[in-house]
Recover the amino acids of this structure.
């Protein structure tokens, strides 16, 4: 089968002719369109393979026969309970938050957050996904094995030896409501925790059956990763000293862009990441057939052609940076988005959107209108330079531009950008809705 040049978005079309069908997908989703070498024969029994009319962005309508998504053993399968839109939205929000926090905690794996309990003189180090250990005095060096276990060691500092005591090794993680903490580093955090409306990523560490919990929360103002609160264990140690049962760790990597409590002046912003590229007048180009496309960060999008002698024979500006439009995007929290990466990756990835308007005039219908473009910036963890990966005219003189750069990866919005997909695929066979059409299409739909 030959993969056609474009990925399409199909929208379900309600019709009395279509068999009843409850789709697990969104009402609009991305597919890849293939040409089938063999004619697909629709089943005689419509109930065995229900159909649904779908229309491409270009206006072509197909009748698509949808595969069964029922469990392999229908006799033992329990019927699915219908959920209202609010329940579904709440579950999706929770899953998205958990995924974001799990990605964020990976940013802390190379760090150990330090905390000193002044009353007991214990100096703690909390290493996410690894272990918690402590000593009576701050340590200059502790050897941690690759497995995450830390053996008791002697560390020389100032001529004296100090025992390192393991508090617990990482066991598991879950999403839990905020714990009841006994001591806070500041009143601001204490008040914020009272009104927290979502669960926190919680890691459990254990030693000899005694557990210690570590919860992670967005930092409102602290630039460093810090312990913001602790919970004391109800039973005291054998020497009468108090023991810590839980830590609350604050870090900016757990801050999503829309969280109102974030101190935006101290957070890494997309503007600060893009500024060096703009100051250096960085541009990237892409050749596609007769045309060359050029994107200059923070300045313009351009389309041109040079002949064999290097002479410029055609030159169009597809858009220049729209300062007012982009400020409005930021104000509405609409700049940080999810967008399909390219035409061979149907799963949406985190992206940063900018508007480039006021391009060269273009004739649309009976009037002249300036060209304009939407530029989506993606994180590139595998490269060290910027790349222009796509320029596509979505409609007359309206363009979509997609750019890769490693500089975007430092922003929290891109922390859960896996850049790989384990999603399964379902084949959906479609035939033209118009009877006299002879082409047969096969659609491959990405199942979320």
């Amino acid at each position: 089968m030959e993969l056609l040049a474009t990925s399409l978005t199909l929208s379900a079309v309600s019709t009395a002719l279509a068999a009843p069908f409850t789709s697990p997908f969104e009402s609009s989703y991305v597919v890849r369109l293939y040409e089938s070498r063999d004619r697909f024969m629709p089943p005689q029994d419509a109930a065995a393979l229900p159909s649904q009319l779908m229309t491409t962005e270009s206006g072509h309508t197909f009748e698509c026969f949808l595969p069964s998504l029922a469990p392999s053993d229908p006799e033992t399968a329990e019927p699915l309970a219908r959920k209202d839109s609010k329940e579904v939205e709440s579950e999706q929000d929770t899953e998205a938050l958990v995924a974001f926090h799990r990605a964020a905690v990976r940013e802390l794996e190379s760090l150990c957050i330090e905390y000193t309990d002044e009353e007991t003189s214990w100096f703690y180090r909390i290493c996410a996904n690894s272990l918690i250990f402590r000593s009576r005095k701050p340590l200059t060096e502790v050897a941690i094995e690759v497995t995450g276990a830390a053996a008791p060691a002697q560390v020389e500092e100032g001529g004296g030896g100090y025992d390192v005591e393991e508090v617990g090794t990482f066991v598991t993680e879950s999403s839990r409501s905020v714990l009841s903490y006994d001591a806070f580093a500041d009143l601001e955090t204490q008040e914020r925790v009272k009104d927290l409306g979502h669960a926190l990523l919680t890691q459990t560490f254990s030693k000899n059956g005694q557990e210690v919990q570590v919860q992670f929360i967005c930092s409102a103002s602290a630039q460093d990763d810090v312990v913001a609160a602790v919970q004391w264990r109800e039973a005291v140690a054998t020497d009468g000293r108090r023991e810590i049962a839980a830590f609350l760790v604050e870090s900016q990597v757990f801050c999503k862009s829309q969280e109102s409590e974030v101190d935006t002046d101290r957070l890494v912003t997309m503007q600060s990441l893009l500024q060096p590229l703009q100051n250096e007048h960085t541009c990237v180009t892409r050749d596609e057939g007769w045309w060359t496309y050029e994107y200059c960060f923070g300045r313009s999008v351009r389309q041109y052609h040079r002949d064999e002698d290097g002479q410029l024979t055609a030159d169009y500006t597809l858009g220049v940076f729209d300062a007012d439009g982009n400020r409005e995007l930021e104000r509405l929290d609409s700049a940080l988005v999810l967008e399909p990466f390219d035409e061979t990756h149907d799963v949406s990835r985190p992206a940063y959107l900018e508007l480039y308007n006021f391009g060269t005039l273009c004739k649309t219908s009976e009037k002249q209108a300036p060209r304009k473009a939407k530029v989506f910036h993606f994180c590139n963890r595998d490269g060290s330079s910027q790349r222009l990966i796509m320029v596509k005219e979505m409609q007359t003189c309206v363009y979509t531009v997609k750019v890769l750069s490693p500089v975007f990866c430092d922003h929290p919005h891109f922390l859960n950008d896996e850049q790989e997909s384990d999603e399964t695929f379902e084949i959906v066979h479609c035939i033209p809705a118009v009877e006299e059409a002879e082409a047969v299409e096969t659609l491959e739909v990405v199942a979320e």
